[in-house]
From TrEMBL:
This is SDR family NAD(P)-dependent oxidoreductase. Keywords: Oxidoreductase. One of its GO terms (molecular function) is oxidoreductase activity. The keyword Oxidoreductase applies. It comes from the Bacteria. The lineage of its organism: Bacteria, Pseudomonadati, Pseudomonadota, Alphaproteobacteria, Parvularculales.
Length: 243
């Protein structure tokens, strides 16, 4: 596995308390980055901190709800004061919402899903864009799903619509930052052994799925990829390509 040298880099990972976000946070810390780990559950973030410290890395914990009030803008203000630049932003936190036919989805759940999976990510981009642009080679990574663009799946409406919107957010930001030092990637992890997947597919044996840590080499490759255009990574395709 080629591990990029992230010493001296600062990386914010949303949804870092478990699942894919936690695995990415550990991977970035092991590569030398100072990881800013954001999620709502303090206890789980503290466990992550222990794991990162045991691996010789370092992290700062941000226990925060991304859809509560003006948390994002206040966070950006604090990060701007404390750090001169932000090198990596991993937009990972998301919820599944409700798996139901479109007419049956509770409007509150629809709103919550779009608020977290789309609007919070736009607000993070909006608020953090100035310090991202201060990095000499910044990277913004968006976590998507196959239902966000590859195909439609009945009953996954709110989540699928949110991921399709997220992909367009990423594509638009990539166009707008074309001439900057920023790199933009869209990563589709595919079916992964996490709480979200178990919620979506309760009858599935989780042991048939890759663990989140198995994504690490592909995440490292995406971060090392310095092509200027928007980069897309799909774990399934990456595996099919012999990795
Ligand atoms: N697992 C899969 O099979 C799969 C497939 C395709 C795409 N993805 C995508 O991969 C990403 C990670 O998924 P996952 O399976 O690892 O999900 P997960 O296990 O459900 O983890 C979601 C993370 O988001 C955080 N979060 C949820 N609501 C939040 C809020 N309001 N504010 C701040 N943080 C919040 C959770 O932490 P707290 O609860 O502590 O806040 C948790 O750390 C998502 O974008 C997902 O759409 C997953």
């Amino acid at each position: 596995m080629n591990i990029p040298d992230l010493n001296g880099k600062t990386a914010l990972v949303t949804g870092a308390s478990r699942g894919i976000g936690k695995a990415i946070a550990v991977a970035l810390a092991k590569a030398g980055a100072h990881v800013l780990a954001l999620a709502r559950t303090s206890g789980a973030l503290e466990e992550l901190d222990d794991e990162i410290k045991a691996a010789g890395g370092n992290a700062s914990l941000i226990p925060m709800d991304l859809i509560e009030g003006d948390n994002i803008e206040r966070l950006a203000g604090a990060l701007t004061e404390r750090f001169e630049k932000l090198d990596i932003l991993v937009l990972n936190a998301a919820i599944l919402g409700e798996l139901a036919p479109l007419p049956d989805i509770d409007p509150k759940v629809w709103k919550q899903t779009l608020d977290l999976n789309v609007t919070a990510n736009w607000r993070l981009l909006r608020a953090l864009d100035p310090i991202l642009r201060k990095s000499d080679s910044g990277h913004v990574m968006f976590l998507t799903s196959a239902v966000g663009g590859e195909y439609a799946r009945a009953f996954w409406g709110a989540y699928a619509v949110s991921k399709a919107a997220l992909e367009m957010l990423a594509e638009t930001y990539a166009e707008e930052t074309k001439k900057s030092s920023l790199h933009i990637s869209i990563v589709n992890p595919g079916a992964t052994r996490t709480d979200m997947r178990a919620l979506a597919m309760p009858g599935e044996d989780p042991m048939t799925l890759p663990a989140p840590e198995e994504l690490t080499p592909m995440i490292y490759e995406a971060l090392a990829d310095k092509r200027t255009e928007l980069k897309r990574y799909s774990f399934r395709q990456w595996r099919e390509n012999g990795n």
